[in-house]
């Protein structure tokens, strides 16, 4: 049975332009049975939201701003969330706000065993992010990440975290599945999202780390370490695997070269005793380079 979620939106701290990405993202987790949005609908700044409420079956909750400068939606959202917690069979809540005032609410819902998904703009304070099981920046859903934007968690930190996860499992004679890596990274870094680093899939993101390799057996994907191998061995194993995965047609040398540079940033063919990339690829066991329409393909031959 699909998990049921309540979607609660703070209209005073989130733009209406995010509504479709919010609903699309939340649909990945379960069925949204409650969709409510809180704000003072007498204000002109709420006009943009009014246009999308009916289209998306979202129930507006009126809250008058009796006190200047105070977000009147806070108390209404909190009261509704607690009512739902005690009177409805919900597995989780999605709290959409860029306001830290919902930090305590997120913590309380989690204490009651509910999953809390937070969504907010990049300005969202850290306490609210960390109070959620999962936190997603709304700008990421719109693909609005700008070049040069600073990531709070570096790729190096993520790689070391994954290595630690795999090592812990190895000590307990366990393999590490891709799903486990994803869930544990979110627990370590609640706002972790591969889209922040320019990838749509966790598997493609992890493949860029030199110390990690992925093995697929049917639908099961296992994340492993390159253990006790020289850089040359790791490189050759990676190249051959890329060629194998490309099937009978093989892979264009240009595409293969790009993948190598993404994985091994300092790769230079001259370091391996060759003046041309084609010659180096041809030297690998069971690999041949074929020419077709003035383009070169690396093909794996058993």
UniProtKB/TrEMBL annotation:
At the top level, the lineage of the source is Bacteria
Record's protein name: NYN domain-containing protein
Q: Where is the HTH OST-type domain?
A: 154-229, 231-302
Q: One Pfam family, short name please?
A: OST-HTH
InterPro entries xrefs: LOTUS-like, NYN, OST-HTH/LOTUS_dom
């Amino acid at each position: 049975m699909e998990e049921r979620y309540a979607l609660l939106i703070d209209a005073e701290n989130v733009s209406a332009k995010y509504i479709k990405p919010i609903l699309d993202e939340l649909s990945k987790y379960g069925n949204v049975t409650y969709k409510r949005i809180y704000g003072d609908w007498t204000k002109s700044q709420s006009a943009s939201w009014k246009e999308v409420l009916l289209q998306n079956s979202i129930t507006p909750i009126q809250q008058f701003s009796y006190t200047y400068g105070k977000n009147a939606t806070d108390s209404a959202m909190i009261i509704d969330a607690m009512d739902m917690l005690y009177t409805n069979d919900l597995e989780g809540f999605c709290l959409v706000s860029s306001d830290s005032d919902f930090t305590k609410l997120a913590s309380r819902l989690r204490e009651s065993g509910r999953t809390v998904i937070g969504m907010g703009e990049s300005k969202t304070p850290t306490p609210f992010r960390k109070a959620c099981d999962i936190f997603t920046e709304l700008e990421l859903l719109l693909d609005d990440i700008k070049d040069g934007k600073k990531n709070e968690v570096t790729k190096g930190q993520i790689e070391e975290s994954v290595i630690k996860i795999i090592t812990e499992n190895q000590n307990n004679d366990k393999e590490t599945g891709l799903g486990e890596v994803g869930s544990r990274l979110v627990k370590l870094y609640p706002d972790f999202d591969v889209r922040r680093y320019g990838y749509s899939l966790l598997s493609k993101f992890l493949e860029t780390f030199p110390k990690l390799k992925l093995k697929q057996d049917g639908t099961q994907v296992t994340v492993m370490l390159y253990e006790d191998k020289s850089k040359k061995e790791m490189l050759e194993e990676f190249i051959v695997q890329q060629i194998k995965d490309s099937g009978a047609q093989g892979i264009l040398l240009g595409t293969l070269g790009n993948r190598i540079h993404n994985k091994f940033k300092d790769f230079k063919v001259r370091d391996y005793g060759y003046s041309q990339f084609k010659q180096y690829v041809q030297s690998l066991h069971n690999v041949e380079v074929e020419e077709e329409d003035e383009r070169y393909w690396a093909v794996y031959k058993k």
